[in-house]
């Protein structure tokens, strides 16, 4: 994707980055990663690398991602628009490709955030039980941005920490012993779904 290299160079100019070597140094990435970036192989790169690049280029993560997928030759916008009208299948494939890359990147970020997603709701529940804890004042500072992120990615909790629910092995993982479907259990850590697809099972224990 040669044209993406040109787009990157424009971003570099706006960020006052003179060359590829400078981009490599400022972002703290390897020469191989820069080469993959220039080729437009963004979907095959690690999320933390892309976040570093976006930061030094002073662009959003989404902007970097979209520019790597949408490849329109300079001065060809009218031709591209006309082609899109006559080739709806191409438009559908492009949209599907974007969604696939976005989903893969979200999944990688979620893997990096797993301990936060699992452990923070537990700490938050403890803080609410005891408002005198110093941590109770910090909870909203972390919880609110986290909730916004999960909402934006259409991620929902399976159940709240401390809730008593009917055991469902599809969505719940028993911590100790065994449980039969329908048995009452207590949620010890939340599980998560994204658009109905299981990400992590909720950790539960027998009542």
Textual characterization of the structure:
The chain is of the alpha+beta class and 207 residues long. The chain folds into 2 domains: 2-112; 114-206, no CATH class. It has helices spanning 2-14, 20-27, 31-38, 47-57, 61-69, 77-86, 88-112, 114-129, 139-152; strands spanning 155-157, 164-166, 172-174, 184-189, 192-194, 197-200, 202-206. A 4-stranded mixed beta sheet has the order 2-4-7-3. A hairpin with a 2-residue loop joins strand 5 and strand 6 (197-200). The radius of gyration is 22 Å and the shape is elongated. The termini are far apart.
Question: Gist?
Answer:
The chain is an alpha+beta fold.
Please give a handful of descriptors for the protein shown.
207 residues; alpha+beta; three-stranded antiparallel β-sheet; 55% helix; elongated
- Quaternary class: single chain
Shape summary: elongated
Query: What's the helix count?
Result: 9
Average pLDDT over all residues: 78
Give the secondary structure arrangement, pairings included:
Blueprint: H1 2-14, H2 20-27, H3 31-38, H4 47-57, H5 61-69, H6 77-86, H7 88-112, H8 114-129, H9 139-152, E1 155-157, E2 164-166, E3 172-174, E4 184-189, E5 192-194, E6 197-200, E7 202-206
Parallel strand pairs: 3-7
Antiparallel strand pairs: 1-5, 2-4, 4-7, 5-6
